[in-house]
Specification:
alpha/beta, 8-stranded parallel β-barrel, 4-stranded mixed sheet, 12 strands, about 35% helix, about 15% strand, elongated, binds 3-methyl-2-oxobutanoic acid
């Protein structure tokens, strides 16, 4: 990673060193704009093979190719300056054995500039993880619900209930022992995730696992309500840019038409005319009327302004995003 603007990028050893420390913040990204948006707030940005379902409309991750991962990996690379870039190895590109895995992981690293790869599997992948790790390819492991094995599991079900917990604990120990620098625990019971977190020496990164993991990872599109094929129960929605978002946009457009004003840009927050009592934005509260007007392309800035404008601050006659 280039060290422009004096920003030092996170490395796999930095991530490993966070075991038991400040929780790791990890998000997925598939495009340059989203990478730019999340980079300042993340330790790890993962180009997950979930891209196949989220962006390409595939039914599962099984149809994702190395070429797709390279394309999205390159795009995300351009948007990062701080977070560690990890790219998923897609189904069929590593399971044959260490040599196949090395060849394809090396291609991913050379083409995308990622500093690590992620692959799914525990005990069965330990030899491959050892091979890659010993040859300069840092590996993030992924155990529990491994979506590439959806057909073997018979669906996207919680893994590790009852007697199966023991197998997942063994998976965690095997990948840690093989040299993985971190391990994603997907959809396992919290008690099991806690036990694994206490047992293994590498950071656990939970997704629908436990708050006590060493970090959490989420698919950005789930968080923003942009992926509606299914809604994971564990995801907190920070915005609704799907169906509800479309309804809000329609309401905004109606309001703007009635007020004879024009919206510019798809990321438009809307318009407030506090002096006229008009609030045609996504914000619940309007700014108080006053002497300051704002026209800004930044939705974040516009969202912050009403709070700034609140008494005893100057107030705000107009706010246009
Ligand atoms: O593909 C992906 O996005 C992932 C995360 C959900 C961990 O593997």
């Amino acid at each position: 990673m280039s060290a422009t603007n004096d920003v030092r990028a996170m490395t796999p050893p930095d991530v490993a060193a966070r075991k038991g420390g400040v929780p790791l913040v990890c998000l997925t990204a598939y495009t340059t704009p989203i990478a730019r948006l999340v980079d300042p707030h993340c330790d790890v940005v993962l180009v997950g093979d979930s891209v196949g379902m989220v962006l390409h409309g595939l039914e599962s991750t099984l149809g994702v190719s190395l070429e797709m991962m390279i394309l999205h990996g390159k795009a995300v690379r351009r948007g990062l300056s701080r977070a560690l870039l990890v790219v998923d190895m897609p189904f069929g590109t590593y399971e044959e054995g260490p040599a196949q895995a090395f060849r394809n992981a090396a291609t991913l690293m050379a083409e995308t500039g990622c500093a690590a790869v992620k692959l799914e599997g525990g005990v069965a992948m330990a030899e491959t993880i050892r091979f890659l790790s010993a040859r300069g390819i840092p590996v993030m492991a992924h155990i529990g619900l491994t979506p590439q094995a959806v057909n073997s599991f018979g669906g996207y079900k919680v893994q590790g209930r009852g007697g199966d917990a023991f197998h997942i604990l063994r998976d965690a120990e095997a990948v840690a022992d093989a040299g993985a620098f971190s391990v994603v625990l997907e959809k396992v019971p919290a008690t099991l995730a806690d036990r694994i977190t206490e047992t293994v020496a590498i950071p656990t990164i939970g997704i629908g696992a436990s708050r006590a993991c060493d970090g959490q990872i989420l698919v950005v599109d789930d968080m923003l309500g942009m992926f509606d094929a299914f809604r994971p129960k564990f995801v907190k929605r920070f915005a609704e840019l799907g169906e509800d978002g479309k309804r809000l946009e329609r309401d905004l457009a109606d309001t703007a038409r009635r007020g004879g004003v024009r919206f510019v840009g798809p990321n438009c927050l809307g318009i407030q005319r506090p002096v006229a009592g008009m609030n045609a934005t996504f914000l619940e509260t309007g700014a108080p009327g006053g002497r300051l007007a704002l026209v800004a392309p930044s939705r974040g800035l516009c969202a912050a302004l009403p709070r700034y404008a609140a008494p005893p601050q100057p107030g705000c006659p107009s706010l246009v995003s």
